[in-house]
Amino acid sequence: MQFKKALTVSAVLGASALAANSSIASSCSLGSQATATAQADLDKISGCSTIVGNLTITGDLGSAALASVQEIDGSLTIYNATSLSSFSADSVKKITGDLNLKQLTILTSASFGSLQEVDSINLITLPAIATFSTDLQNANNIIVSDTALESVEGFSTLKKVSVFNINNNKYLTSFQSSLQSVSDSLQFSSNGDNTTLAFDNLVWANNITLRDVNSVSFGSLQTVNASLGFINNTLPTLNLTQLNKVGQSLSIVSNDELSKAAFNNLTAIGGGFIIANNTQLKDIDGFSKVQTVGGAVDVTGNFSTLDLSSLKSVRGGANFDSTGNFSCNALKKLQSNGAIQGDSFVCKNGITSTSVQLSSTSSGSSKSSATSSASSSGDSSNAQASVSASSNSSSSSSKKSKGAAPELVPATSFMGVIAAVAVALL
Ligand SMILES: *[C@@H]1O[C@H](CO)[C@@H](O)[C@H](O)[C@H]1NC(C)=O
Ligand SMILES: *[C@@H]1O[C@H](CO)[C@@H](O)[C@H](O)[C@H]1NC(C)=O
Ligand SMILES: *[C@@H]1O[C@H](CO)[C@@H](O)[C@H](O)[C@H]1NC(C)=O
Ligand SMILES: *[C@@H]1O[C@H](CO)[C@@H](O)[C@H](O)[C@H]1NC(C)=O
Ligand SMILES: *[C@@H]1O[C@H](CO)[C@@H](O)[C@H](O)[C@H]1NC(C)=O
Ligand SMILES: *[C@@H]1O[C@H](CO)[C@@H](O)[C@H](O)[C@H]1NC(C)=O
Ligand SMILES: *[C@@H]1O[C@H](CO)[C@@H](O)[C@H](O)[C@H]1NC(C)=O
Ligand SMILES: *[C@@H]1O[C@H](CO)[C@@H](O)[C@H](O)[C@H]1NC(C)=O
Ligand SMILES: *[C@@H]1O[C@H](CO)[C@@H](O)[C@H](O)[C@H]1NC(C)=O
Ligand SMILES: *[C@@H]1O[C@H](CO)[C@@H](O)[C@H](O)[C@H]1NC(C)=O
Ligand SMILES: *[C@@H]1O[C@H](CO)[C@@H](O)[C@H](O)[C@H]1NC(C)=O
Ligand SMILES: *[C@@H]1O[C@H](CO)[C@@H](O)[C@H](O)[C@H]1NC(C)=O
């Protein structure tokens, strides 16, 4: 099957806007592009078992059907047919190109009951759709955006896809998938408030980003080749106990209800490792096997424990910032043992602050002074000042470290790494 890149919404709309209006002749070969604007147009080709060419259906149709066609050697696009309430093509088994349904404001039912194979499916802006049925076995790219679908179970039989992107479907509540691999990206965002997902057969994915998801299980996921992000979800727990490796960054950010993150088999993170702003995540004890981090580590939030006891190598800097009662001692030990090799180490909590400039070589310091801007060094000295002021007024805890002395952090290059990772994710 042809391997295609995902079409963005604008690319899809752009392609359709260029559709030529050639009337449909009574032939099974449509040429590169033909447009049907009435059922009578479709009737002319309904006797064909295979139609060759790209077919667009648009205009003022109330309902439409493509009767006995079994294969479309091309793409089928139905768009901007604002009176179309139902469409069926129940004999079509295979579409070699794309199936696009776009801007169909009153379409409630689209039936492709025999469709097993298609390159891409794009369902975009279908505010009334209640049912979309297929018998799908193979597809490369699935994009479902801005629809009224409550379920995408039609895709639940797929084992492999390249892109699976489900966004802005406000009524979607749950999806149980049998996907085993995702060769490009798996993305869910801005769907129903309570979306529950299960990807328990998924073993390998290139990258995964979930937003606005209420619960998810990845019971078999072993490898994420590129990045893995959980951002702004209402997940109470994250249980990825089979996950062994993330090739690029791992981000767990702004999940307000997350209280448990279990990544107990994870040993390697190829890029940045960010755990930030998860207000309920107090005990970060699910990363105790992580040995290597290829980028920077940034852990911020109101946590009181953080177990990184297997950590052997962090190529970037490290920033640990807790508003809770957190001891930096274990991390300081890791840093002094050489496990954190990047150019800065900062550990702060409500009581003490430790900052160490690691790259004190002449090349390192000249580089950082050359790039350091007035505003960023000003910010970091203010932050240090307020932290050390509160440490002076707090109890004479034995945790108070030498780092609380005004020792400035060369924040520029380190923050650059963090910012780059964060931007790449958002
Ligand atoms: C297509 O062309 C025919 C004749 O040229 C015209 O009657 C029809 O309105 C056109 N349809 C669209 C959608 O432009
Ligand atoms: C259908 O359109 C695509 C471009 O969108 C083109 O590459 C392809 O050749 C067309 N198919 C046929 C059968 O003409
Ligand atoms: C959609 O169809 C209406 C007529 O039904 C037409 O006026 C409008 O230009 C079309 N929009 C696009 C984007 O093709
Ligand atoms: C979400 O689902 C839970 C049960 O799973 C239910 O108690 C809650 O009310 C739902 N919230 C919304 C906004 O639908
Ligand atoms: C997925 O990973 C590839 C690198 O393999 C990257 O180029 C792409 O931008 C990523 N996509 C998303 C949505 O993260
Ligand atoms: C996590 O999932 C494993 C199986 O994949 C299960 O045995 C374990 O109980 C789960 N833990 C939590 C906290 O849900
Ligand atoms: C895995 O990700 C890397 C980038 O980190 C990319 O170059 C490579 O092609 C990906 N592998 C597969 C099988 O997609
Ligand atoms: C989280 O979602 C809210 C609203 O849904 C949005 O305002 C905020 O920017 C999002 N935060 C992130 C980190 O994406
Ligand atoms: C951890 O992953 C390895 C494969 O990398 C697997 O053999 C092992 O069963 C996993 N352990 C747990 C506790 O999931
Ligand atoms: C965490 O929240 C703070 C304050 O809301 C914000 O400045 C910071 O950028 C957030 N961190 C991340 C990684 O989103
Ligand atoms: C941090 O969590 C503790 C409870 O563990 C709570 O008392 C405190 O108010 C929280 N602080 C912030 C800044 O949320
Ligand atoms: C902070 O936690 C330690 C144990 O880790 C405990 O002994 C101490 O009392 C706690 N301090 C506060 C202010 O909660």
Features of this protein?
35% strand; binds 2-acetamido-2-deoxy-beta-D-glucopyranose; four-stranded parallel β-sheet; disordered C terminus; lipoprotein; 426 residues; disordered N terminus
Report on this structure.
With 426 residues, the chain is an alpha/beta fold. It folds into 2 domains: 1-139; 222-426, no CATH class. The chain is 16% helix and 35% strand. The protein is built from 6 helices and 33 strands. Strand 31 (318-322), helix 3 (329-336) and strand 32 (344-348) form a beta-alpha-beta unit. Residues 206, 225-226, 247-248 line the site of one 2-acetamido-2-deoxy-beta-D-glucopyranose.
Helix fraction bin: 10-25%
State the secondary-structure class. Answer: alpha/beta
Number of strands: 33
Bound molecules: 2-acetamido-2-deoxy-beta-D-glucopyranose
Number of helices: 6
How many independent structural domains?
2
Strand fraction:
35-45%
Instruction: Describe the sheet with the most strands.
Output: 22 strands, mixed
Tell me the radius of gyration: 27 Å
Global shape: elongated
- Low-confidence stretches are 1-21, 359-426
Rounded mean pLDDT is: 80
Distance between the terminal alpha carbons, to the nearest Å? Answer: 32 Å
GO biological process, one term: fungal-type cell wall organization
Membrane topology: Lipid-anchor; GPI-anchor
Region (Disordered): 358-406
Organism: Saccharomyces kudriavzevii (strain ATCC MYA-4449 / AS 2.2408 / CBS 8840 / NBRC 1802 / NCYC 2889) (Yeast)
